[in-house]
Amino acid sequence: MDQKVRDYIDKYGVTEETRRFLEKTPKMYIGGEWLFASSGKTISVEEPSTGAELTHIPAATVEDVDRAVAAARQAFAEGEWSDMKAAQRERILRRIADLLEQNTQTIAEIESIDAGKAITGCIAVDVAGSIDLLHYMAGWPTKIEGATRPASLEGENFAYTLKEPVGVVGAIVPWNWPLNMAIWKIAAPLAAGCTLVVKPAQLTSLSLLFFAELCEQAGLPPGVLNIVTGSGRLVGEHLARHPGVSKISFTGSTEVGRQVGKSAMDHVAHVTLELGGKSPMIAFEDADVQRIVDATQASIFFNAGQVCSAGSRLYVQESIYEEVVRAVSERANAMKHSPGLDPESEIGPVISRSQFDSICDYIEIGKQEGAEVVCGGEALDRDGYFIRPTLLGRTTNAMRVVQEEIFGPVLVVQAFKDEAEAVKLANDNEYGLAASVFTRDISRAHRVAKAMEAGTVWINTHDMVDTILPFGGYKNSGIGKDLGPEQLEHFLETKSVWLLM
Ligand code: NAP
Ligand code: MG
């Protein structure tokens, strides 16, 4: 660990458990064993508020992936998890949730240090959301059931369906919500009785490795959850292509998701893809302006804008354009920038040098395209990867900054005349992850919600998430759903059984 990172951690202080975890060299978790990469190679990991080295994670090889898939297949075949009494599976899942809750501060600190995330949001959203989801999915194993169906046949017969776990799940996770996105991938398949091989993003593997320690303590049998760390192009690609994997569950960019989907099709695996977004917010002239300001805080400026469903395009009715732009930019300018461990941090650094460069490039592109920089528009002059919350005004849908996912704290805003124009502008995009509409007119709210080409639509808010409601994209934002009973279905095969008496 670089001295700069040590000084940073000492300045704010962390739990003894966090120190213990960060001081040891991380290992992967395969077949219930803690292992280095078979090649002995590692990948250096940075702390984003200093840009200095935090630790090294194992750089898994394809042989390590093979080993993890073999462990998951063996665990599945032996049935210690898939055939375990459903009530017992529920108990273990709840125990994992309880251990996570008991370790909230530690895992939030690990996440904050590894990903640069503001600790307060990390506790309230990332960790709390993960605990809720584990509890929600823990409720399902005793309730997974098939159906009896009256077949129209000559003669006495009996037909029914069985719901069975699909088998080994390969899960690939992004870096923006490292623990939370991993739990989105893990909780449902565990509830269904599947076993897993999970590949976290190489930028942020630590919280998931800590979580695996908790699973071990909770009594999850060896081989049920396996974690391989390393590069997407090598480890992720090999996992997606692996014939031993029955289902691929991917969250990340649309570009990589397309590749992963194609690889999975080589061996006709089930696929869920949760991909990118460029989600519109439509503000009508009767809207509560404070609600719009709050929504920008909760999405495009939360987690430094590294939010897949962030409201990143704001369309405002002409008569309130100036008022909304002023209110949003005043609040954005007042946000406290500081490293994630500062409990008062409202906006931490973005994840990496390359993400920082890409966001800064987009801001420049926006300027060249003729957008007006209303606030922000630049990086902070300090160590680490801090970017000011940025509002680009008077944009048009022809601009790249309006069409492409920037994945940083950059909001583009433009005016519209009427409802028809607003709906047309909002839907004019390759993505369809989410959308929101701000109005006090209840009929218009529902009419626009129905017209949105998006997997989730919020009315008078943005970026609310709950375990009970499915989340997933239309158009190039993905295939399939995470969360809710809809997600559980993705990890179950349906078998039809016939009996002619
Ligand atoms: P990414 O570059 O697509 O990476 C996602 C994961 O895929 C990482 O673990 C990455 O590994 C791995 N990967 C990279 N290349 C691969 C390949 N050829 N084969 C298999 N795996 C590969 O996305 P990201 O930059 O981490 O995350 C940001 C994106 O995720 C944004 O587009 C965002 O909108 C999207 N996202 C979507 C949702 C949703 O629910 N829809 C949620 C969160 C994020 P390494 O990076 O370790 O090499
Ligand atoms: Mg990191």
Question: Could you characterize what this model shows?
Answer:
The chain has 501 residues and is an alpha/beta fold. It has two domains: 3-275, Aldehyde Dehydrogenase, Chain A, domain 1; 279-467, Aldehyde Dehydrogenase, Chain A, domain 2, CATH 3.40.309. 41% of the residues lie in helices and 21% in strands. The protein contains 17 helices and 22 strands. A seven-stranded mixed sheet has the order 14-15-16-13-12-18-19, sandwiched between helices. A six-stranded mixed sheet has the order 9-8-7-10-11-21, sandwiched between helices. Strand 3 (42-47) and strand 4 (52-58) form a beta hairpin. Helix 5 packs across helix 6. The longest helix is centred in the first third of the chain and has 20 residues, at 119-138. The radius of gyration is 23 Å and the shape is globular. The model has no long low-confidence stretch (mean pLDDT 97).
